[in-house]
Design a protein that fits this description.
Number of helices of chain A: 10
Number of strands of chain A: 12
Strand order of the largest sheet of chain B: 2-1-3-4-13-12-11
Distance between the termini of chain B: 10 Å
Oligomer: heterodimer
Largest sheet of chain B: 7 strands, mixed
Radius of gyration of chain A: 16 Å
Helix content of chain B: 10-25%
Order of helices and strands of chain A: EEEHEHEHEHHEEEHEHEHEHH
Chain lengths: 251, 213
């Protein structure tokens, strides 16, 4: 039976692993290499690296982190943050990324999704969507959750998949960094209407939050950052709990 | 010093396979040259993408004959993902494509669309269990030391249906369908999943294969 996936997210700024609260105020929480290995040993099913600075100069840090990780960590690695061109992607794949996450770059230039899917395969292209509640729906934001686009989240999700996205990484801006749990309505909306796997992100702090995202939100995978970095919960603990609630997990 | 040859035919992320082999302390060589493949002790055929593109690239580099000769000499060959699928007789992915016919069988799409409720997503993506067929032992196979129902990482939309059930080395369930997740005939082996992305379980599987040299 297919297991759900637990995916720690490592946000990287230069050589450091950091965490933001509501995407403002960054805090250094450790070294990416050490944390990644720890999560791998603890049972992470995949890892997501997000480059928070993504300038040409700082990119070398991320490439170095990915290269080192790929030599010791044998689970899928997804990398994103400021990816705008096919060339950016080639460099990241060469360094060791298995999948690339694109957000602002895709909204600005949706055809890049289909081009990337054609060249690298849909299975390697994750479209990352950050959304904030607006009236009775959610609006898509770009630039690390700073710029509203006026685009409805479901419309964009459907378009991204039509263009060739193999997976969607869905983050609730309202919940991210708050520890109040995932936005279940958002996850359920997208997961029920989209034919590719959906990775839910933003808001987890208790094991019950993970269960809710799966049972109520119907997410295929769950992504979290602070809850792991701050050692509130270990991946082993979460999997043991989910297993006890009859959720298929890889133990 | 015996080493494994990883075939480079321009598709997919072969570097993951090389990294895994090196991590395990084995020597490996990357090649797309027919004469080097002809002399290899052991071959890994990685794979990503579509069946038709894969066989086209292999054919373009004149590698079909050397691969078939390698198998005929009973030397170890491991096909991964699409690399496993091309061991078959033919595939129906984006038209009809001939395979290497090293393990008779066909490659077809998952039956998901026949299910009216259609709640299963395609591709089959993530960690799923490999199961040992009844009356089959995993001793002396790439699954030696692997527990029945251990998890490995899959990402595919098509499945290989071998003609003979005796060629099924492991099976997996997804979308209400049971299918071969690993096949073997002689020393020709195929894994639908990616052992190079399957954590410690995957490394053990690769290690078992490398020790067949």
């Amino acid at each position: 039976m297919l297991s759900i996936r637990i995916i720690p997210k490592l946000e990287v700024k230069g050589p450091n692993l950091i965490k933001g609260i509501h995407l403002e105020g960054l805090r250094i929480v450790g070294k990416p290499e050490d944390m990644a290995l720890k999560y791998y040993e603890d049972g992470a099913d995949e890892l997501i690296y997000m480059d928070l600075v993504a300038s040409l100069y700082q990119r070398k840090y991320l490439l170095n982190i990915i290269e080192k990780a790929a030599q010791k960590i044998f689970i899928p690695l997804t990398v994103g943050g400021g990816v705008k061109t096919i060339r950016d992607m080639r460099i990241l794949f060469k360094a060791g990324a298995d999948k690339i996450a694109i957000n602002t770059g895709a909204v600005t230039n949706p055809r890049m999704i289909s081009e990337a899917a054609r060249i690298f395969g849909s299975q390697c292209i994750v479209v990352s969507i950050e959304a904030q509640v607006k009236y009775h729906s959610w609006e898509v934001y770009t630039d690390s959750g700073r710029t509203p686009t006026g685009i409805d989240v479901l419309d964009w999700a459907k378009q991204a998949v039509k263009l060739g996205a193999g997976e969607l990484l869905l983050t609730s801006i309202d919940r991210d960094g708050t520890y109040n749990g995932y936005d279940l309505e958002l996850i359920k909306l997208i997961s029920s209407q989209i034919s590719v796997p959906v990775i839910a992100c933003g808001g987890a702090s208790k094991k019950e939050h993970f269960l809710q995202a799966l049972e109520k939100g119907h997410a295929d995978a769950i992504c979290a950052a602070s809850v792991f970095h701050q050692k509130k919960l270990s991946i082993k603990q979460i999997k043991k709990y989910l297993d006890s609630r009859n959720i298929p997990v890889r133990i | 010093m015996k080493k494994v040859l990883v075939i480079d035919y321009g598709i997919g992320n072969i570097f993951n396979v090389i990294r895994a082999v090196k991590y395990l302390g084995f020597d490996c060589k990357l090649s797309s040259k027919a004469d080097e493949i002809d002399h290899a002790d052991s071959i890994i055929l990685p794979g990503d993408g579509a069946f038709g593109d894969t066989t086209k690239e292999i054919s373009k580099r004149n590698l079909i004959k050397p691969i078939i000769n390698h198998a005929a000499r009973n030397k170890p060959l491991l096909g991964i993902c699409v690399g496993m699928q091309i061991l078959s007789t033919y595939s129906k992915e984006f038209g009809y494509h001939k395979g290497l016919n090293l393990i008779p069988g066909k490659v077809i799409k998952f039956n998901v669309l026949k299910n009216p409720k259609h709640k299963y997503k395609i591709p089959h993506l993530g960690w799923n269990n490999i199961q040992r067929p009844e009356n089959k032992s995993w001793n002396n196979t790439i699954f030696y030391g692997i527990r029945n129902k251990d998890c490995v990482y899959f990402i595919h939309s098509y499945v290989f249906i071998p003609k003979k059930t005796a060629n099924i080395l492991a099976f997996t369930e997804y979308a209400g369908q049971t299918y071969a997740s690993a096949v073997q005939q002689g020393n020709v082996i195929g894994c639908q999943f990616h052992p190079e992305k399957s954590g410690k379980t995957g490394l053990k599987i690769i290690s078992n294969f490398l020790q067949m040299i």
